[in-house]
Amino acid sequence: MDRRALVQWMVAAGGLAAFNRLSAHDLAQLGEETHARLALAPGAALALTPQELRTVTAAAECIIPRTDTPGATDANVAAFIDVMMADWYPAADAERFRAGLAALDATSRSRFRVPYADASTAQQVELARALDADVTALRASSGAKANAHWFAMLKYLTVWGFCTSETGMRDVLKSHPGPMRYDGAAPVR
What's the pLDDT band for 171 if we cut at 50, 70, 90? Predict the structure, then answer.
């Protein structure tokens, strides 16, 4: 599946209300621009605390794990999600997302006695699968309302962030660099 087809699928699958109005091209461009911004200011947390970033990193790696290809961590997905929360999501959605991260950490602490990011990979996957089952059940009963669930937001952002990263495009989707175009009216530098 190529990058544009994947982004089109993301839009068709619901995504988030604010992004549903964007074309696949616009979503891909926004993702690429966000990654370019991250390259200019690496390590600068914007909306999420360091602990929340650790939780996002671990959960995103469960969604797109490193195997014989790069995973979400290799594509800097947690920083991508941080930028999206800071710059693009309404405050209510960002708070719901952060509350979900806190609930995930609390569940991990009660079941495994450690924060989610410090749990074993098997424990992290167990909790992620349970959340994914919740979203799947919600999607079956309520359709697009499932997109408001914080874990649905995390999955959407993880896939989007990965597929628009240079790592995802180059090493997995084999679509980097993208096709070039000729613009005869481009300014001379």
Answer: low
Indicate whether 38 belongs to any domain: no
Give the pair of three-digit tokens for residue 38.
Answer: 């991250």
Neighbours of 114 (CB within 10 A): 13
**Residue 11's pLDDT is what?**
47
Q: Which domain holds residue 165?
A: 49-172
3-state secondary structure of 22: coil
pLDDT tens digits for range 50-109: 999 999 999 999 999 999 889 999 999 999 999 889 888 889 999 999 999 999 999 999
Residue 37 lies in a domain: no
Half-sphere exposure of residue 153: CA atoms within 13 angstroms, side-chain side: 27
Q: Could you give the CA distance from residue 123 to residue 32 in angstroms, rounded to a whole number? A: 32
Domain count, the chain: 1
Within a domain: 189: no
Alpha helices per DSSP H over the chain: 3-12, 17-20, 24-40, 50-63, 77-87, 91-112, 121-142, 150-163, 166-167
Q: Is residue 6 part of a domain?
A: no
* CB contact set of 39 (below 8 Å; sequence gap of 6+): none
